[in-house]
Amino acid sequence: MRIKKIAILLFIIILSNITVAQDAQEIIRKVQSKYENITDAKATFTQTLKGSGGKGTSSSGVIYIKKQDLYRIEAGNQIIVTDGVTSWVYSPSKKQVVIDNYKDDGNTFSPNKFLFNYPENFYSDLDGEEIIGGKDCYVIKLTPRSGGSVKSAKIWIDKSEDLIRKITISTNQSTNTYTLKDISLDAGISSSKFTFSPPSGVEVIDLR
After folding, report:
1. Long-range contact list for 172-176, CB < 8 A, 24+ apart?
2. In 3D, which of 86, 148, 61 has the Cα closest to residue 113?
3. Which of 186, 143, 137, 145 is nearest to 164 (CA)?
4. For the chain, what is the radius of gyration of the CA atoms?
5. Would the pLDDT of 1 be above 70?
6. What's the domain range around 100?
7. Fewer C-beta neighbours within 10 Å, C or N terminus of the chain?
């Protein structure tokens, strides 16, 4: 009888794990369906960056995203822009812009990966539930499928709207957290948002 009880308990545990895995995949499918049918997105956000020493800084701004690796992040004293080929990092306070080729090793941080392509680049597991900005959210833990700068990540998905409300990305050097607000899908963002012309009098560092 004891062996039978143990066998039943093991069966329940295995079944429970399978159900959790199915739930995580179902959540991902719903989010993917939501984002696959849009061309662009805009949101305000708050960002917290913590270094390996534990010190953190916070900022807020606006993020613009378009498929095919186009994005623009305006936060604090920095603007980051890429058209999928070239990247610009502009610091108004330093009067400096750094230009480089857009790099994508499969795991480098790009907002597009976490909104459009994360199932292709990461293994996903349901990691609980949490309230973000008054919204009930699922927490999905992401583990990179291959090596890269991103060591782990989490996304918080709105249960009712299937929208990503929060993203945390961890590397060996830092942990970066974005909390998204005022999300607007298919906002009709002009392609000019994803190119950058340095203002006159600004130091240009071209690494291409």
Report:
1. 172/52, 173/51, 173/52, 174/49, 174/50, 174/51, 174/52, 175/49, 175/50, 176/47, 176/48, 176/49, 176/50, 176/109
2. 148
3. 137
4. 20
5. no
6. 2-206
7. N
Mean pLDDT across the chain, nearest whole number?
A: 80
Confidence band for 76, pLDDT divided at 50, 70 and 90: confident
Residues 7-49: tens digit of each pLDDT: 444 333 333 343 344 477 788 788 878 877 888 989 998 988 8
For residue 50, is pLDDT > 80?
Answer: yes
Among residues of the chain, what percentage have pLDDT more than 70? Answer: 81
The type of residue at 135 is K
Long-range contacts of 109-114 (CB under 8 A, 24+ apart): 109/149, 109/150, 109/169, 109/176, 110/69, 110/71, 111/63, 111/65, 111/71, 111/73, 111/167, 111/178, 112/65, 112/67, 112/69, 112/70, 112/71, 114/153, 114/155, 114/164, 114/167, 114/169
Tell me how crowded residue 169 is: count the other CB atoms within 10 A of its CB. 22
pLDDT tens figures, 151-207: 888 989 998 888 889 988 888 888 889 898 888 989 999 999 999 999 999 999 999
Count the domains in the chain. 1
Whether the CB-CB separation of 66 and 194 falls below 8 Å is answered with yes
